[in-house]
Design goal:
Elements (H helix, E strand, L loop, with lengths): L19 E5 L7 E3 L3 H6 L19 E4 L5 E2 L8 E9 L5 H14 L4 E5 L2 H16 L16 E7 L9 E8 L2 H5 L5 H12 L2 E6 L5 H4 L4 H7 L8 H20 L7 E9 L24 H4 L4 H17 L3 H10 E8 L23 H9 L7
Helix pairs in contact: 2-3, 5-8, 8-11
Length: 381
C-alpha cells in the first residue's frame, strides 16, 4: 500500500496515486501514459502496462511525474514507511559537498543494518562521480555551481534490523545548494526554490567553516589554511554566518506563517566542519576532548545523547572563545531545537595541491543519527 504521508520532493505537496501520472517507456519513441484502474486505486498499487504489442505489457511502470509540478519522480517513493529530509546550507567553501559524499559513503559501509539505495539516475550519477573523485582519485571536490536550481538527492534506506517479513523503508531526501545562493537569498525564482526546500526540510544542516574565523587564521599555518580552503574568501565569517542564519529564519517564518518572535520548531544541526585543521591551534580543543574521540553512535546502534551533549558544550565553549557569541545567539534565538556537531570529512587536511591522504571521516554520521533518533528509527541511549 502507498503511504499517506508521501510528499513530492520537488514541490513538497502531498502525493497520492491519483496525484501522479505514470508512464511506460519501452524506448524513447514509444513512451506512453498508463492510467490507474479502479482496482489499482482501491488496492493502492502501481499500474501495469496493458498496451498490446508493447514489450513491457504486463510489467509495472517505472516512470512517473507529479501532477502538481510536473517533475519526474521514481514511482517507489509512494511506498516508504517514513519520509526524512534535510537541507544543507552554509557559506561558500564550507565543505557541504565533501561532507555529503563522505556521509553517504559512511552510511553505506558503517556496519549499520541499513541498505542505502539511490532512487533515480541523477542521484546515482552524482554519488558515483563524487565518491570516485574523493575515495579513488583522492581529490577535493569543487564547490556546487551557484545560480543553478539544486535537484534533491533521492535515497531509500532499507532497515535490515527488522527480521520480519516486511523490511521498513525510509525515504531520505537531501537538498544541497550552492553556498553563494544561501548567503544572498533574494526574491527570485531560484531563491523561492531554495526557500521551499528550507521550509520543507525536517532538519537543517547549517555548515560552519572555522577557517573563516580571524582567530583561527592567526593560529594555524598558511600551508594548512591554503590547503583546506576550497575558495578564496576576503570577508570575515561572523557577519556572513549571522546574516545567513537570520535570512534562513526569515524565509522559513514567511513560508510557514510563523510570527517573528516565535522560535522555529525545526531541528537545526549546526555542523563545525574541518576540525582536522584545528589541531595546530593552541587555543583549540584539548587532547582529551570528546569531539576528538571516535563517535560511539554507530557501534552502539543508537544515538548516545550524553556524548552528543558533551560535544555540543565543547564546541559552544570553543566558539565563545573565538568571539562567536553573535552566531550562537542567532541560532538559539531563531530555532527551538539546536544541536552543535563537529566533523571532519577527510580526517586530515589535503596537501597544497588539494590531494587527499587515505580518507578517514570523523563523526560525519552524528547529525544524521540525531535526526533518525528524533524520528524514532534508532533509540536514544
Amino acid at each position: 500500500m502507498f503511504s499517506k504521508s508521501a510528499v513530492c520532493p520537488h514541490c513538497l505537496r502531498k502525493l497520492t496515486l491519483s496525484g501522479m501520472k505514470f508512464f511506460c517507456v519501452p524506448d524513447e519513441d514509444s513512451r506512453h501514459e498508463v492510467h490507474l484502474s479502479l482496482l489499482n486505486k482501491i488496492k493502492g498499487r502501481l499500474p501495469v502496462c496493458k498496451r498490446k504489442f508493447c514489450r513491457n505489457n504486463g510489467l509495472t511502470i517505472r516512470e512517473a511525474v507529479c501532477r502538481k509540478c510536473g517533475e519526474s519522480l521514481p514511482p517507489q517513493i509512494l511506498f516508504h514507511d517514513k519520509f526524512l529530509s534535510f537541507c544543507a546550507v552554509g557559506v561558500s567553501g564550507a565543505g557541504k559537498s565533501s561532507y555529503m559524499t563522505t556521509l553517504l559513503h559512511e552510511l553505506k559501509y558503517s556496519g549499520l543494518p541499513w541498505v542505502l539505495q539511490a532512487m533515480d539516475v541523477e542521484t546515482t550519477r552524482l554519488a558515483q562521480m563524487n565518491e570516485q573523485h574523493v575515495y579513488e582519485d583522492r581529490q577535493c571536490l569543487h564547490g556546487t555551481t551557484a545560480g543553478v536550481s539544486p535537484r534533491p538527492q533521492l535515497w531509500t534506506i532499507l532497515d535490515n534490523s527488522n527480521k520480519g517479513e516486511k523490511i521498513p523503508t525510509y525515504s531520505l531526501t537531501i537538498y544541497d545548494g550552492a553556498g553563494e545562493d544561501c548567503e544572498h537569498i533574494d526574491y527570485t525564482p531560484l531563491d523561492s526554490k531554495i526557500s521551499l526546500y528550507l521550509s520543507g526540510a525536517k532538519m537543517l544542516l547549517i555548515m560552519f567553516d572555522p577557517l573563516l574565523l580571524a582567530n583561527v587564521r592567526g593560529e594555524i599555518s598558511n600551508e594548512t589554511l591554503n590547503a583546506s580552503m576550497a575558495t578564496e574568501r576576503q570577508t570575515s565569517a561572523p557577519a556572513n554566518m549571522v546574516s545567513m542564519v537570520n535570512n534562513l529564519a526569515n524565509y522559513i517564518r514567511r513560508n510557514c506563517n510563523i510570527p517573528p518572535g516565535k522560535r522555529i520548531d525545526r531541528r537545526a544541526a549546526v555542523v563545525l566542519t574541518k576540525i582536522d585543521a584545528l589541531t595546530e591551534m593552541l587555543n583549540g580543543f584539548a587532547s582529551g576532548s570528546t569531539i576528538l574521540k571516535e563517535s560511539p553512535h554507530v557501534q552502539s546502534r543508537g544515538f548516545v545523547n550524553s556524548d552528543s551533549e558533551m560535544v555540543d558544550l565543547e564546541i559552544r565553549d570553543w566558539l565563545t572563545r573565538q568571539g562567536e557569541t553573535a552566531f550562537l545567539g542567532a541560532i538559539d534565538a531563531n530555532f527551538k531545537d539546536v544541536r552543535v556537531f563537529g566533523v571532519s570529512s577527510f580526517g586530515r587536511p589535503p596537501d597544497l595541491r588539494k590531494h587527499l591522504a587515505k580518507v578517514r571521516p570523523h563523526r560525519v554520521l552524528d547529525p544524521l543519527m540525531w535526526m533518525l533518533a528524533g524520528e524514532g528509527i534508532i533509540p536514544t541511549l
